[in-house]
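hey can u check if this looks right to u? its 222 residues, i copy pasted from the old doc so theres a chance i mangled smth
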Amino acid sequence: MTGTTAHGANADLITLPGTPLAKAVVDLVRPLESPSVFSHSIRSYLFARLVAGRLGPDDYDDDLLFAACVMHDLGVAADGPHRQRFEVEGADRAAEFLVQQGIPAAGADLVWQAIALHTSPGIAERRGLLCVLVREGVGLDFGGAVGSGHLDAVTDEMADTIHAGYPRLDMIGSLTDAIVAQAAKNPRNAPRYSIPGEFLHERQTFGRTRMENSCHSSRWGN
């Protein structure tokens, strides 16, 4: 379960967990998301793992971190019900899947919180280590445009290895397209001043979101 072939430390950097749960998560998500959004989800885990190494926690569950990162955009999957904002819809779907896989309800709830709050700065950071790591991993994949405080944890060599294994594929535009499409399907999907609500409003009003503009001048550029 890796991207492209690598050697030594580089191979370790992009090696994914080989557990049955990690495989089940990949098998669920890969067919449901665009290659761009799927690669973003994997990179978010790889970046979150680097942050965990920097922070030095020894009490996080790597399987739950992988599940939360890789399923954090499950709410924009094309086959979803699309009746709630994408963060909540994805969190509900991920938690239900984890329980079906035999994960205790408490663990599934931690993943639910991490996914539901990954667009909520100042809240996610108060809800435990898993929420912190998921938000930081996702933030790092935006190149610092959403405020990650650990951008310097990723060297240029590390970034090159991760992006070679899991290319960006115009992630910012692709993910924004998916969020806006989901938001437009139901007013409950896009409450004003939420991320999906603002993305939908800005696309309809200006043709482009402020996030897209800011990300083009971020570290990764797209």
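The radius of gyration is 16 Å.
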